[in-house]
């Protein structure tokens, strides 16, 4: 039977599906999604700056809440928070559309991987966008305290402990993938139209340094979560801020934290550049 000649209910569903796919391919959504990469870049640059301050003996929270808190009250900070909110939500919607309409021409196995990856990224950017929106509206949050509280809640029962252990191992795996992507330049497959010469080389170097630094930071975070779970000590699970401060407290940790901070800033700049060259 030809499409459009079925029951009214099926016709309506087909039209809704076509409208959703058209929206996912719209220029407006693409622009918003690219703005999401800029928002992620801003976030990483701010976290890197705070981490660099910690390496130099300063104070602060080197995580999402600390970075967004830096924008509150600063000139143009509220406007930037709203920009980042719109960008992250736009990128989350774009990734969600990829779950339903992307991965065309791939094998069933590769489609499942691509859709799972897009779904995970949609959830991550949606969560970051909501946090940007909360700060833009005058609210706040404490990532470290939230991480500890959630860990304590999960550790109160065997199923929660198993889940938390799986989360820690999962973050370790993601961190390892970031290091691998940076070391092998695997991230370049997502980019198109890179300039030649020094400009293109600079983008590649930023990606290599940034991916490896972020992978290292995620690796430390994953280790802390696993250790906190095994020792039943939720106070050790304090999110990214706690992970970076634990690096600082190690021998030569100040220098290592400084290097990671610069790497996170490089990743932030790379993400901003990525907004232009990302294959959509």
TrEMBL record:
Transmembrane intervals: 35-59, 79-101, 122-139, 159-180, 201-232, 252-273
Pfam families the record matches: DUF1206
Disordered as annotated region, ranges: 1-21
Keywords: Membrane, Transmembrane, Transmembrane helix
InterPro entries: DUF1206 (IPR009597)
Protein name: DUF1206 domain-containing protein
Species name: Arthrobacter pityocampae
Transmembrane helix found in the keyword field: yes
Keyword DNA-binding assigned: no
């Amino acid at each position: 039977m030809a499409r459009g000649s079925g029951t009214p209910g099926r016709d309506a569903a087909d039209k809704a599906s076509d409208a959703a796919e058209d929206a996912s391919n719209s220029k407006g959504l693409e622009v918003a999604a690219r703005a999401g990469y800029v928002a992620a870049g801003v976030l990483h640059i701010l976290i890197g700056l705070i981490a660099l301050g910690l390496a130099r003996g300063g104070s602060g929270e080197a995580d999402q809440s600390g970075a967004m808190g830096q924008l509150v009250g600063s000139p143009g900070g509220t406007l930037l928070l709203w920009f980042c909110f719109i960008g992250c939500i736009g990128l989350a919607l774009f990734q969600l559309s990829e779950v339903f309409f992307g991965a065309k021409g791939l094998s069933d196995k590769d489609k499942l991987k691509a859709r799972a990856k897009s779904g995970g990224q949609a959830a991550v950017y949606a969560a970051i966008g909501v946090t940007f929106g909360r700060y833009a509206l005058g609210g706040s949050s404490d990532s470290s305290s939230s991480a500890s509280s959630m860990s304590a809640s999960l550790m109160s029962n065997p199923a929660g402990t198993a889940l938390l252990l799986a989360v820690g191992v999962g973050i370790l795996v993601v961190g390892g993938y970031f290091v691998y992507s940076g070391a092998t330049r695997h991230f370049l497959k997502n980019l198109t139209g890179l300039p030649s010469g020094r400009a293109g080389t600079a983008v590649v170097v930023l990606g290599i340094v940034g991916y490896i630094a972020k992978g290292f930071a995620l690796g430390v975070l994953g280790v802390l979560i696993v250790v906190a779970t095994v020792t039943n000590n939720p106070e050790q699970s304090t999110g990214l801020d706690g992970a970076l401060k634990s690096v600082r407290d190690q021998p030569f940790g100040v220098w290592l934290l400084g290097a990671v901070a610069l790497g996170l800033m490089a990743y932030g700049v790379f993400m901003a550049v990525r907004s232009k060259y990302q294959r959509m």
